[in-house]
Design goal:
single chain, alpha/beta, 2 domains, 14 strands, globular
């Protein structure tokens, strides 16, 4: 049996145009602090590692400061390995942040890059298989490319992937879509035993096997996300898998519409704004509809 934390879509260095300079600084700091929370949670829960399934960084051109602060946050729990998978925001191309002098020179020993070089042994008969993005526009399913030659040999394998599953995507012409039918076929055959995915910022179970999950973003990034701010605590053994979302996020995005036609409506709006918990970490988008007299 192994226990681990499944996370994704940290998008460190993300900016939001609607935040002022002070708000943006706090928003960015919270994303770094979430890394420390993830490491602490892994240690408290007796996890053997953390896997981050793509989009660790917002782009390959993030600042040196963001890279160093992220690596320092992971180094805060040196007994917990962090396996990082390149995604569509930070692909493993010629300009990859993971190949930058800053990342290479500051990378602590507990940070391991999933570069697609093959299954990594985790001990106890477990292996971790990474399916990285090598460009922003792959011409095929990255997970299929990384797993098609895996033997069915009794080893318990965790696949770390990134991208949209075809069953959830309206873009049927996207060549990089991940085939859910292929995943479930290989899971049933025992080629691998859990698929940890990134790209979807909402915590989501996919399919009927209970073994394919999007962790969602550990800090929310937009208004249309469903249940963001989580990581997944996964317990995997040969007899089955248990998955439990754990909250680590501190920010929230709220979008509300109010009909305003008089003083009572204005009062309801005032009560709504006053009732928001932790206003310093809340981004609100209001739609106000109606007519008011002077």
């Amino acid at each position: 049996m192994t226990r681990f934390i499944h996370s994704a879509d940290w998008q460190l260095g993300m900016t939001r145009h609607f935040l002022n300079q002070e708000g943006q600084a706090r928003f960015g700091a919270a994303r770094i602090e979430a890394i420390r929370s993830i490491g602490s949670l892994a240690r408290t829960e007796g996890c053997t590692f953390v896997v981050v399934c793509g989009d660790v960084f917002e782009t390959n051109q993030v600042s040196r400061q963001v890279v160093v602060r992220a690596l320092d946050a992971m180094a805060a729990t040196p007994d917990i390995p962090f396996y990082l998978l390149p995604g569509n925001h930070d692909p493993l191309d010629a300009s990859s942040v993971f190949r930058s002098p800053t990342f290479v020179s500051h990378r602590p020993a507990n940070v391991i890059l999933l570069d697609g070089s093959g299954p990594l042994p985790l001990g106890g008969g477990f292996e971790l298989v990474g399916a990285p993005w090598y460009s922003k526009r792959p011409l095929g399913d990255p997970v299929a490319a990384a797993t098609r030659t895996l033997p069915i040999d009794g080893r318990l394998r965790i696949v770390a992937g990134h991208g949209a599953v075809d069953a959830l995507s309206p873009d049927v012409g996207n060549p990089a879509l991940i085939s859910l039918a292929a995943l479930e076929s290989d899971l049933g055959a025992g080629r691998f035993h859990f698929v940890a995915l990134g790209d979807r910022h909402s915590t989501t179970q996919v399919g009927s096997s209970g073994r394919v999950w999007y962790a969602g973003a550990p800090e929310p990034t937009d208004y249309d996300e469903t249940d963001p701010g989580n990581v997944l605590l996964v317990e995997l053994e040969d007899r089955g898998v248990a998955v439990e979302p754990r909250r680590v996020g501190s920010w929230q995005f709220l979008a509300e519409q109010f009909d305003l036609s008089g003083a009572d409506d204005c009062h309801r709006l005032e009560l709504y704004l006053e009732g928001i918990a932790d206003k310093a970490r809340t981004i609100v988008k209001l739609a106000l509809v109606g007519q008011l007299s002077l």
